[in-house]
Amino acid sequence: MEIKKGILYVVATPIGNLADMTFRAVDTLLSVDLIACEDTRVTRKLLAHYDINTHVITYHQHTNNSKLQRIIEEIRAGKNIAIVTDAGTPGMSDPGNKLVAEAITHEIEIVPIPGTSAVSTLISVAGIDMQKFTFMAYPPHKKGRKTFFEKVCASEVPIIYYESVHRILKNLSMLSEMDKNIKIIVGKELTKIHEQIIRGSVDEILKYFEENPDKVRGEFVIIAYR
User: DSSP state, 13?
Assistant: First the structure.
């Protein structure tokens, strides 16, 4: 008798404010057999908040292929598994796409459980035409970083990308050197208590952070446009 395959659920989680969790996401994480997550410490805090006791395992960018295959085998054996990222929707700037691709190869049913995303959150309050845009995730740390920002400056449509607290000033400085006409929308600590959305020219934004070093905290989402 052929065993019925399980389902892979791709579950979006809050990007900062735990109250942004959807009812459907909670129900899904309660019902699955296993949750694959980037950092068990981060995910367990979320699960504890909603009294979810489902077993968790790590699945992140450094996970080897053998563990990925074990997850796939669990689903093929009939288990329902959810994949979550530390914050937001899996598959954008995390290894969720690899697991989904492997599930497709094995004809496993994949169900998206939508929710928050830092990208869509900032777009919703951008106040500019975002019918066409390019998402470029994180700039490279070293090799390819200059090329990344050259593409940002040359783009005819808005570019949206992430940056860490450690490189945000270097990021803005490089953009300023390349093109002072670039306009910037920065989303900082989105959905959290210290959320801030700042708009202006690249030089204005750079000056703001240089004069307010206490504001250089958290994760940043940036829209660069003309």
Answer: B
Q: Where are the alpha helices (H) located in 9-137, listed in sequence order?
A: 23-31, 40-49, 65-76, 96-105, 118-124
Q: Tell whether 221 is covered by a domain.
A: yes
Cα–Cα distance for residue pair 146/198, rounded to 1 Å: 24
Please tell me the distance from the alpha carbon of residue 89 to that of residue 94, in angstroms, as a whole number. Answer: 9
Residues 182 and 149: beta-carbon distance below 8 Å:
no
Domain boundary among 116, 132, 155: 116
* pTM of the full structure: 0.91
Structure tokens at 54: 């489902």
Task: Determine contact, residues 89/115, Cβ cutoff 8 Å.
Answer: yes
133 and 32: one domain? Answer: no
What CATH number corresponds to the domain at position 29? 3.40.1010.10
Q: Which domain holds residue 162?
A: 119-225
pLDDT in tens, 9-18: 999 999 999 9
At 163, which CATH number?
Answer: 3.30.950.10
State whether 82 and 166 are in the same domain. Answer: no
As a whole number of angstroms, the distance between CA 176 and CA 164 comes to 18
Please name the residues in contact with 48: beta carbons below 8 A apart, sequence gap of 6 or more: none
Bridge-based pairing of strands 196-201 and 220-225 is unpaired
Kindly report, residue by residue over 60-115, the tens digit of the pLDDT: 887 888 899 999 999 999 999 999 999 999 987 777 889 999 999 999 999 999 99
Query: Looking at this protein, which amino acid is placed at residue 99?
Result: L
